[in-house]
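This entry is passed on directly below:
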Amino acid sequence: MNESFDIAIVGAGLAGTALACALSSSSLAPLRIALIEAQTIKSDWPACDENINDFDPRVSALTVASQNFLTGLGVWSAISKQRVSPFEKMQVWDAEGTGEVSFDAADVRAPVLGHIVENRVTLAALVNQLKQSPNIHIFDGQAVAHLRLPEKSESEKPQLSLDDGTIIRSTLIVAADGANSPLREMAGIAVRAWDYDHDALVSTVSVERSHQKTAWQRFTSFGPLAFLPLAVNDDDKHYCSIVWSQSSEKTAAAMAMNDDAFCAALSRAFENRLGKVTACSQRFSYPLQQRHAVDYTKAGFALIADAAHSIHPLAGQGINLGLADVKVLSTCILAAHKRGQSVGDIAVLNRYQRQRKGDNLAMMSAVEGFKRLFAPIPLPLRWLRNAGMNVLQQQTKLKNRIIKYAMGIM
C-alpha cells in the first residue's frame, strides 16, 4: 500500500500527539497528517481510582506555559476533569548542610507553579482530541523499517517504509520517537551525549502527612530525590510520585529491596519530611543520559522533544521543552502552509531550529549546572553552596525571576 501525506509524525507519545493536534487545526485546506506508532494507540481514559497501584508511575510537572498550550489545543479541560495535582510551592534543601530554598506561586501573584499530571492522562486527552480530526490518519502497531530522505536535487518526497510493507511518502517527516530515536539514527543526525552513570527510580508512595501542595526536592550526596504531590479526594490518604536518582548500583539495590525495606530506606533518605513512607507501588527504573542533536532539521525532516534533546529529570523540564518545540514547529509549519510554501522547506524548518535550539541549550546548561553544583564536593565548597542557598532564600526579586523562568512565563 502506498500513501501520500503532507506531514508524517513518527511517535505517538505526548509530543507526537500534541503536534498532530496542533497541526490539525488549520483553517486553510487541511494538512493531510499521518501519525505512526510502533505500539497500539489507546484512547480509553485510564481508571482514576485512588489506590496506590492505580497511579501512572510516569508523571510530568507541567508548567503554566505548557498548560496554556494544552488549553489552546482544547485538551486541558478534559485533563483537569480526570486527575491533576496542582502545586503551589517548591521546597529544595541540601542534605549535606543547612541550605534551603523555598519558592511560592503567591510571590509572583500566580495561583500555582504548575501541575503534576500522569502521562497517561495527558496522552488520553490528546489521542481523543486527534481522533476527532478527519485529516489525521493513524498507523499504529507499525514500526518504521526504513527512512529515505531524497537528495536536494531530487523532486520526490521523503519516504517511510513500515514493517507491514506500507510505503508512506510525505513532504515533511517529524521524528517524535523518543530519546533513543531510530528515525534520528536513520536520518544520520549526530548527537552529543553523555551518561550520568545514574538511574532514576520512579514509584507512587503513601506518606503519613499531607504534601501541602508542595513539590519537595532533597539533594543528597548520591543524587536528587523528589517527592511530587498527587491529589486525591480522601483526606486520610497522602500520595506522592517519587523520582530518586542514584548510581546504577544503588538503584539496583533499591529495586531489589522488599517493599517494607524500600519504604524505610526512602523515609530515611527524605528525612521523614512528610512522616514515614508507609507503602509503595511497583517500582521502575531507567538510565539517565543527556543528549542533544547537533542539528534538529534536514530538508523534509525534523526532530522534536526527546528525539532532539533529553535532560536530567531533576528540574522536571523534559516534556515542557518538548511541548515548546511542538508549539514553535507547528506555528512555523502553519505559517508556511498559509503562505503556500512547502512545509518541508529547509528554510521553514530552520526557523523552528533557530527559535528552539538556544532555549533548549540554555535549560540543559542550567540543569547540568545544578547537577554539578550538588555533586559531592569538599567541605569548604559545601559550606559555600549552603551559604549561597540561604542567601538566595532572602533574594525575593531573584527568586521571583527563577520562578517565572521555570513556569515558562518570561
About this structure: The two ends are 48 Å apart (CA to CA). The longest helix spans residues 346-373. The domain at 1-42+131-189+295-374 is CATH 3.50.50.60 (FAD/NAD(P)-binding domain). The CA atoms of residues 81 and 121 lie 10 Å apart.
